[in-house]
Amino acid sequence: EALSLAYDFEWMNKTLFHGQYERLQSFFHGSELAATGTPAADEMAVLTPLLSDLEPRQRQGVLSDWQLPKSDGNGFNRESLLKARQLLLDAGFYYQDMQLYQPNGERAQIEILMTGDTLGRVLLPYIRNIERLGFAANLRQVDGPQYYERTRRYDYDMTTDVFAQSLSPGAEQAAFWGSAAADEVGNRNTIGIKNSAIDTVVEALGDAESREEIVLYTKVLDRLLRAGHYLVPLYGKSGTNVAYWNQYRHTTLPTNAVGIDYWWVDKEAEAKVNDYLKR
Prior knowledge:
Blueprint: H1 2-5, H2 9-15, E1 22-23, H3 41-47, H4 56-63, H5 78-90, E2 94-96, E3 99-101, E4 109-115, H6 120-132, E5 136-142, H7 144-152, E6 158-159, H8 173-177, H9 196-206, H10 211-227, E7 235-236, E8 248-249, E9 264-265, H11 267-278
Parallel strand pairs: 4-5, 4-6
Antiparallel strand pairs: 1-7, 2-3, 8-9
Helix pairs in contact: 3-10, 4-10, 9-10
């Protein structure tokens, strides 16, 4: 949770991305599967037997109207960093000579593993903020083979990942979040989640017999994942930007796709475009 508070999305979106992205508030962002507000009655019926298995902070988060913190975008993120500092102190971390130490007396340090150059400009400002919290932090850039081998074997403190979802989640969620997958080399549970409540809901989701049950169990799963603070949610978009010549037409498109299969060419407009290109 403290590491999530250190991520200043508003500044990054304004400075690096020209305001084109959205902060991800859900593991199923932008769909009917995303949990919103406080749990509805049917969600509570699923959650209630699981609450005793959750840590107090996760239990509180599951029942709340979830919203990630927002900064004013000025690049300092002071309020969130102060909250993060207090969370670390409450957890037993301590400061000595302006440096952060773990409860066992070891230096608090984080290495973020990455490959390629794309995410460097996103991760370096984040590293700056966790260094403000007192962590010794560095960005470790490796080549592709080494990156994939290290991620397969969970040889990292932090890394980036994409958990792509369909609109009909099911048994594959066990590979993302299941306890068994956390011990399997090369599986998709790169976070290493081991949570009995999540296992229960994932199993129920895999056995769902209707669309209503899929939506219900996915929303409950969403609440459990968010409240566990297993990752630092970054950014995404609910829509897709497409640039094209003004000769194509379409009617209403699918909610989750550009739907190229449903586009057609307007012959009259195509002739105008071709005339323009010949000039």
